[in-house]
Design brief:
Residues 2-80 form the ZAD domain. Keywords: Metal-binding, Nucleus, Repeat, Zinc, Zinc-finger. Residues 154-173 are annotated as: Disordered. The protein is built from 13 helices and 24 strands. By secondary structure, the chain is of the alpha+beta class. Among the domains are: 14-77; 400-432. Strand 17 (318-319) and strand 18 form a beta hairpin. Helix 1 (30-38) packs across helix 2 (54-86). It is elongated and about 120 Å long.
Length: 432
């Protein structure tokens, strides 16, 4: 029976024997913590449910921390009480009337005065102390000295705390960040982030006023409406690109060295630890997310869902107004529109040649490299571009998958097929 062991919720997310406690030096397992806090014994192979919902899991951890604090405080107080009872009681002198003194301490750096009124009625003197004062004036001078030291130490303790409070109020950097127990991410607002781990049916959704898209918060809906429906965009002064978030574009494209998280194997930098973790899967080749249709595996869940939409669902929502051809991504539509306008905005910085897309330009730039980093595994040849290696591999596999449209003869390379079609079938038609 899969219900929460505490509140009997029908959709528990966690198992008590698979959970971990916080990294606070506590060696107890979560099942021991559960028994310690609630006095409920949980047996692993029992027919009774061993599941917990996320809400009860957090409450148990919070109560465990609170109970440990109470027990530590109780032990501390009892130990101090025993020490006080075993020690020699000091001799107490009571001064009937000592006038309240008002003191003023000048601070040369800030030109401020701190005034404090100290009312002293009881003075404690240990039996082991051998200090005796002949007159009241001598005794009062010692009191003054103690009073000055107390005020100076008190001011030193208060001053840094005030500075910290001002910094906390004035800067965003000092905002406390919390770690999510579910996924390990460090976030500013743990409560808002926890919605991501709830089932979709129980999440709060806020619908856009213009379209059917829904959001988890009002700020997310406002940002969507501002960018998508109001068309608020900014132009970068460096590359003249029109972007949604100018500050983020500048940091991610033109100033990547300022990003805080660096990948050790390749040296690339990222804006968040979660982005770095996603990138690290390219080095480990770990692909835990598989498509349920074709069983192809992906490093992230978002890439897997993108694959399903593009390949299996055949989603093409971006339509060309000139030829009615549709595309999955807006960027692909923009590239296609340049075939109509013959526009080539991307220039190669090495040879000055222009290209219609950034992908083609980057592929072209590889021919200017001195290093041939694509080596054939069957012979000693190496190539500057990956597609050159793919073409070369045909000489080893002898695969012919490019048939002539006129006579059906197959060729290993498409350019060889094109040359055959022209010389064997189309040349005499052009001459005629």
């Amino acid at each position: 029976m899969d219900v929460c062991r505490v509140c009997l919720t029908k959709t528990p997310e966690k198992d008590i024997f698979q959970l971990q406690t916080r990294k606070n030096g506590d060696s107890k397992s979560f099942s021991e913590v559960f028994t310690f806090c609630l006095d409920v014994q949980v047996v692993k192979d029992s027919a009774v449910s061993t599941k917990l919902c996320l809400k009860c899991y957090r409450k148990v951890l919070s109560f465990h921390k609170f109970k440990c604090l109470a027990l530590k405080s109780d032990a501390y107080l009892k130990t101090n009480l025993e020490l006080e009872e075993s020690s020699v009681k000091p001799e107490v002198f009571i001064k009937d009337s000592i006038k309240t003194e008002q003191m003023s301490i000048s601070d040369d750096s800030q030109n401020n005065s701190v005034k404090d009124e100290v009312s002293m009625e009881i003075f404690v003197k240990d039996e082991d102390s051998g200090n005796n004062y002949d007159t009241d004036d001598e005794f009062l001078s010692v009191i003054k000295k103690i009073k000055y030291e107390y005020i100076e130490e008190d001011d030193k303790e208060k001053e840094p705390s005030n500075k910290r409070q001002r910094k906390t109020k004035g800067t965003k950097a000092s905002a406390t960040r919390q770690m999510c127990e579910e996924c390990g991410k460090t976030v500013k607002d743990l409560k808002a982030h926890s919605y991501m781990h709830l089932p979709e049916a129980s999440r709060r959704r806020i619908k856009c006023h213009t379209c059917d898209k829904t959001f988890s918060s009002h700020s997310a809906r406002y940002k969507h409406n501002k960018i998508k429906h109001l068309g608020v965009r900014q132009k970068c002064s460096i590359c003249n690109k029109v972007v949604k978030h100018l500050r983020q574009h500048y940091r991610m494209v033109h100033n990547r060295a300022s990003l805080p998280f660096e990948c050790v194997p390749c040296g690339r930098r990222f804006i968040s630890k979660s982005s770095l973790d996603v990138h690290m899967t390219t080095h480990t080749k770990d692909r835990p997310h598989s498509c349920d249709v074709c069983e192809k595996k992906f490093s992230t869940k978002s890439l897997m869902l993108l694959h399903k939409r593009q390949v299996h669902d055949k989603e093409k929502s971006h339509l060309c107004q000139l030829c009615s051809k549709s595309f999955f991504k807006k960027y692909h539509l923009q590239e296609h529109l340049r075939t109509h306008s013959k526009e080539k905005p991307y220039k190669c910085p090495d040879c000055g040649k222009f290209f219609a897309s950034l992908t083609i330009m980057k592929s072209h730039r590889e021919i200017h490299n001195e290093v041939k980093k694509y080596a054939c595994g069957l012979c000693d040849m190496s190539f500057k571009k990956r597609n050159y290696l793919s073409v070369h591999m045909i000489s080893h596999t002898k695969e012919k998958r490019h048939p002539c449209q006129y006579c059906g003869v197959k060729f290993g390379r498409s350019d060889h097929r094109k040359r055959h079609e022209y010389t064997a079938h189309e040349k005499h038609l052009v001459a005629a």
